[in-house]
Amino acid sequence: MLLKRTITAVLLISLATFLAFYGDGFLFPLLILAFHFGIYMEWLTLLNASRAQKISGIMALIFIFVVVINVNVSQHLLLALLFSSFLFWFLVSPAFVLNKYRASKAMSVIVALIMCLASMIALYFAFLEGVMFLLSTLAVVWIIDTGAYITGKIFGHRKLLPTVSPNKTWEGVYGALFMYFIFSLFMVKIDGTWQEFVLYYFGTWWLVLLSIVLFFVAIFADLFESKLKRTSGKKDSGNILPGHGGLFDRFDATLAVGPSIVFFNIIGTRL
């Protein structure tokens, strides 16, 4: 299991890094679309969405993404989309995880569409900002996931939310936070990273605050997906990634982190 998980992770990171450096204006957006197509389908499956809901949702996902990357869409509309994503992961997902909020299936299908669209657009704009900006955005999730998994396996014994995700522990959260802190100290010294950008435009305290917020939404995005699986009675969202499960299992936190980072990038540089 560990070997499969490691090999899959290395291949995914290698693919993302290669396309970040060598992908063009067609290949990388195509990769974004393919991955989010899979994530959205898995999300709808967990919601037990109807065939009609899946077809209409996928058509909307593809159409809107293609329009956004080819047409000069209002910056205010993009900001509204990214900010709505941030608010969902920061406020609504914790309420759902903690049994404080429920939504209808139709509303959940629409929310899933909006969250996937926000993530797709965020990663596309991160790609346009430069290789290091994109990789430093993706690396937030890689570091948090790796830190939580390793420290949780070695030291974990106090369950975080056993009714939601029995394998997640407080020790895993602390380990992820520690690795994320060390990672941020390193990345802030590298030109082109989002950490360096936030430090330049907003200052140290904003960087610290945003880093804490990103850690929070990454953890709760993971728990949110776990709660969806628990509610639907499934262990994994899919089986396309050996050792990890589905695409949604692997990239749940990316859906939350990417839009938040790009939102602050746009706020800092273009308004």
Short recap of the structure:
The protein is mostly helical and 271 residues long. The protein has helices at residues 2-22, 27-46, 51-70, 75-97, 105-129, 131-155, 170-187, 194-201, 204-232, 247-270; strands at 159-161, 165-169.
From the structure above, extract its key features.
single chain, 271 residues, mainly alpha
Task: Please describe what this structure looks like.
It is a single chain. This protein has one domain. It has a two-stranded antiparallel sheet with strand order 1-2. It is globular, with a radius of gyration of 18 Å. It is an all-alpha fold and 271 residues long. It contains 10 helices and 2 strands, in the order ααααααββαααα.
- The low-confidence runs, each spanning 5 or more residues with pLDDT under 50, are none
Q: How would you describe the shape?
A: globular
Strand order, sheet with most strands: 1-2
Label the structural class.
Answer: mainly alpha
Gyration radius over CA: 18 Å
Q: Largest sheet at a glance? A: 2 strands, antiparallel
- Average pLDDT works out at 87
Strand content: under 5%
Q: What share of the residues lie within helices? A: over 70%
Euclidean distance between termini CA atoms: 47 Å
* DSSP E strands, number: 2
The tally of helices reads: 10
Order of helices and strands: HHHHHHEEHHHH
Tell me the count of domains.
1
Can you lay out the helices and strands and say which pair or pack?
Layout: H1 2-22, H2 27-46, H3 51-70, H4 75-97, H5 105-129, H6 131-155, E1 159-161, E2 165-169, H7 170-187, H8 194-201, H9 204-232, H10 247-270
Antiparallel strand pairs: 1-2
